[in-house]
Structure formats: C-alpha cells, structure tokens
Task: structure prediction
Amino acid sequence: MEYEGWHFIANNRLRDGSEPAPAGGVEHYSGKLALCRSGLHASARALNALSYAPDGRLRVRRVRLTGEVAFDRDKGVASERHILAELSEDETERALHEFMLWCAEQVRQLMVDERSRHALDVKRRWLDGEATEEELAAAMDAAWDAVGKAAWVAAGAASMDAARAAIEVSRDATMAAAWAAIMATARVADINIIWDATMDGVRDAQNAELERLLNEAIRAQSRQDKGV
Result:
C-alpha cells in the first residue's frame, strides 16, 4: 500500500530530533505505528499537513508512504517515507506568505478598517521586494490593532472564544485581519456559525491554492536545478 502526500519539518529536524532524508532519500521507522504518536506521517492534503506542522522554521516535502501503512481521514503513518521533492526554508516561507495573503484577499471586501486593507497592500509590496521590513512591521502592527478592535467588539463576551480561536490559528496578521473582517460584519449570534461554516466551506479552495503554490515552487526549483 502507498500513500502520497505532504509533510512539514521545522528547523531541519524531524520531530524526534534526527536529521531528515534529502530529496530522493527514504526515512525508516521500525517501531509500532500509531497515528499522531509514532511512525512516519504525512497528509494527502497540504492544508492538513500545515495544520500538523511543528513550530519553527518550516520546510515542506512531497512524500510517499510505503511499507506498513495506516491512515485516517486527514493523515497517514508508515514505516517508510520516500522524499519525492522538497523546498528550502526560504522557498517554503515565501509560498506560505503568498498563501496567507491570498486567504486574506478573499475577504478584502469585508474589511471595514483601512488599516487591514493597507496591511494587505504592504504585504504584497514586501513580497515583491518593494517595501522594507520596517514598513511591513508597521503595517502589521496597525493591522493587529484593527483586528483587536473589530474582533472583540463584534464578538462580544458570548463569542469571545470563537474570536480568539480565529485569530490564534492565523500565522500572520493578514490572516487575522481576514477573520476580523468576517466577524466584524456578522451579528454576535452568528459568529460561531460563521466560524464553522467558513472553515468547512473554504477549506477545499484554500487547499487547492496552497497546493498550487507549493507545486509551482517545486517545479520552479526543478527547472533551476536543471538550468532551464
């Protein structure tokens, strides 16, 4: 049985602290397999793999699980993990920044605070090398101020947990601004419903965009390696 998917590592180490195999290599595990606990993992969908990513500077890898394999709805575990392709930390970071910006842009029209919209514009210019780190930091700080005001006012005490969760899952101020925009345009009673529906309703689109960005970066890397 084979299971192909995505896997993230942090700080150039596997979760057990060992060195990862390079692209073209194979990692092996000889113990008992247990989903989420032991073995070599991967997720068929990049978005799911990102949700399981460890803390630290990330690198994404396209992998195939073989040998003894078990899987559930959103991940698999195996005794062998073949590294089909991988991106560097810089390449992974760039793709994830692009992904976060894309997600936020999907709800730009809901953003009622100009600071949130400005943060998206500065983030794009920063990604294109047209804005400095200082300009980005200032825009992100302003966006976080907007996020706090919009989220807490819109959510109210009864929905504070949902609002806080929406912001905490964001790895970027632009994503937090997106969630704040959604919450700020909803009635208090609808916050939890919107949170659940949004998460369910847009996951496929988000995953498609994330995989497009990662695959595009992998192809670009392959062309560069071949000198094309």
About this structure: Strands lie at 3-10, 26-28, 40-42, 58-71, 76-86.
